[in-house]
Amino acid sequence: MFKPNDRVGIAVSGGKDSAALIHALCKGFPNVDFVALHINLGIKNYSSHCKIKVEELTRLLDVELHIFDLKEELGFSIDDFKMTFYKRKICSACGTVKRHVLEVLAERANTKILATGHNLDDIVATMLNNFFNGNWTQLVRLKPVLKPLMANQTLKVKPLIKSSENENLLYCLYSDVPFREVNCQNAHVEKRTKDREMLEYLSKDNPGFKYQMLKNFFKLIPILEEYLEKPKLMKCKFCGFPSLGEICAFCKRVEMVKDTKR
User: For the ranges 62-71, 133-142, 154-163, which has the lowest average pLDDT?
Assistant: First the structure.
C-alpha cells in the first residue's frame, strides 16, 4: 500500500474507524511520513465536535493536519443540501463532496496516497448491495488498493479492510484513542441497520462468514476487471478533476446547492 519513504495522507473524520487507522499506522510505522486530512462539513453541532476530536488526536500523535472548511472555502455546508433535491439523499451528496475534497486536500498536502478507514463490515455490506444491484464497476472499486485512473488522482488504500467495526471500536477504547461521541443527524441509518442485521444473521453460526465473503469477492474482482470496459474519463471543465462528462458530479452538486442560496 505504501513504502517507507512515501508521504501518506490519511482521511480522518473523527470517527472510530479513521481514528483507529491513523493511530495504528503511526504506532506501527513510526518512520513513515503520515499527514492527516480532515473536512469540516459544516453540519450543526456534529462537525465542530468531530474537528475537536481530530485536533486532539493529531496533537497526541504529533501528526501534520490539513483541514478543508466547506463553509469558508466554498460558501456552503452539507446542511445546505436539505434545501435541494438531495434532502432525502443527503448522504449521497455528502459522499460526492468528501471524495472530491479529499483529493484537493491530498494535493495540498503533497501526497499521492490516500488511506481511508473503511472497515470489514462497511466493505462487505457495500459489496452485497453492489452485487445484488449489478453495480459491477462500483464493486471493483472496493478492492484494498485502487490505482488512479488519471494523473491527478491519488492511489487509494484501505488498510483496515479486514478489521471489523467492533475491533476498531475496541482498539480505540483500549488504547485511549479520542474519537467522536455523537452521530451525524443527517445520516439515514435505516438501510445500513438492515444490511448489518442481515450480515449478523448470516454470521450467527459462522463467525468467519464476512471474511469468507471478502475473500471470495476478491477472487471475483479480477474476472470482472477483465470483462468490464474501463470508464472513459475527461477533465471537468470547472475543477479539472476526472469526470465521466463535461462537468463532474461534484461541480454539479456545488452549483445546485449554491443556486438555492442565491
Answer: 133-142
Cα distances from 142 to residues 147, 198, 210, in angstroms, run: 11, 20, 15
Tell me the C-alpha distance between 91 and 70, whole Å: 16
Listed in order, strand segments (DSSP E) in the chain are 7-11, 33-40, 64-69, 113-115, 145-146, 155-157, 234-235, 242-243
Summarised one tens digit per residue, pLDDT across range 192-225 is: 777 778 888 888 888 899 999 999 999 999 999 8
Question: What span, in angstroms and rounded, lies between the C-alpha atoms of 262 and 260?
Answer: 6
Do the Cβ atoms of 57 and 20 come closer than 8 Å? no
Average pLDDT over residues 143-148: 94
Distances in Å between the alpha carbon of 143 and those of 129, 151, 162, 217, 222? Answer: 15, 20, 11, 9, 10
Residue 101 clears pLDDT 90, i.e. is over it: yes
Asked whether the beta carbons of 242 and 149 are under 8 A apart, the reply is: yes
How far is the C-alpha of 173 from the C-alpha of 176, rounded, in Å?
5
Please tell me whether the overall predicted TM-score, pTM, comes out greater than 0.85 for this model. Answer: yes
How high is the mean pLDDT of the chain?
92
Stretch (H or E) spanning 144: none
- List domains and CATH numbers for the chain: 7-261 (3.40.50.620)
